[in-house]
Write a structure and sequence with these properties.
The longest helix is centred in the C-terminal third of the chain and has 24 residues, at 133-156. The chain has helices at 18-21, 36-43, 91-102, 133-156; strands at 10-14, 22-32, 53-57, 60-64, 85-88, 106-115, 121-130. The chain contains four helices and seven strands, in the order E-H-E-H-E-E-E-H-E-E-H. The chain has a single domain, classed as Small protein B (Small Protein B, Chain: A), CATH 2.40.280. A hairpin with a 5-residue loop joins strand 6 (106-115) and strand 7 (121-130). The chain has 157 residues and is an alpha+beta fold.
């Protein structure tokens, strides 16, 4: 049995609420421009992307409001925890995502922050459309039913 591709990825932060609040239509892997102390803080496993989003500005796409706390062994040249960080994408991807954001209701949501198999920090960015309240209720209902169904099957068999 061959190992899965995701086995070598070390996930630092995951936005679990994103799939509940948004329909994710497409996802893209993007690099991030980081300073040295930010990378060290990520390797310690400290990051929060739950309240962050990405926005096309100044000819690029920027990650806004992502919290990478200061590196514990850093000095006075430590980074600012919630600064804007530029995302590294191909030009065609940037244009496609920027045009999609201009359409009504679409937004760029960070899904996962991880190190790939080469040890480079990457961000999985999702193109999402917001769910209405009744859609969220349907999601909860479907999830509860699937759990109950699994319990019933496990108990019978």
């Amino acid at each position: 049995m061959a190992p899965k591709k995701d086995d070598k990825k070390k996930v630092v932060a995951e936005n679990r609420r994103a799939r509940f609040d948004f329909y994710i239509e497409d996802s893209v892997e993007a690099g991030i421009m980081l300073t040295g102390t930010e990378v060290k803080a990520l390797r310690e496993g400290k990051a929060n992307i739950a309240e962050s989003y990405a926005s096309p500005e100044d000819g690029g796409i920027w990650l806004i409001n992502a919290n990478i706390p200061e590196y514990s062994a850093g000095n006075r040249q430590n980074h600012e925890p919630k600064r804007k960080r530029k995302l590294l994408l191909h030009k065609k991807e940037m244009v496609r995502l920027a045009q999609a954001v201009e359409r009504k209701g679409h937004t760029l949501i960070p899904l996962r922050l991880y190190f790939n198999e080469r040890g480079i920090a990457k961000l999985e960015l999702g193109l999402g459309k917001g769910k209405k309240t009744h859609d969220k209720r349907d999601t909860v209902k479907d999830r509860d039913w699937s759990r109950q169904k699994q319990r019933l099957l496990r108990d019978r068999g």
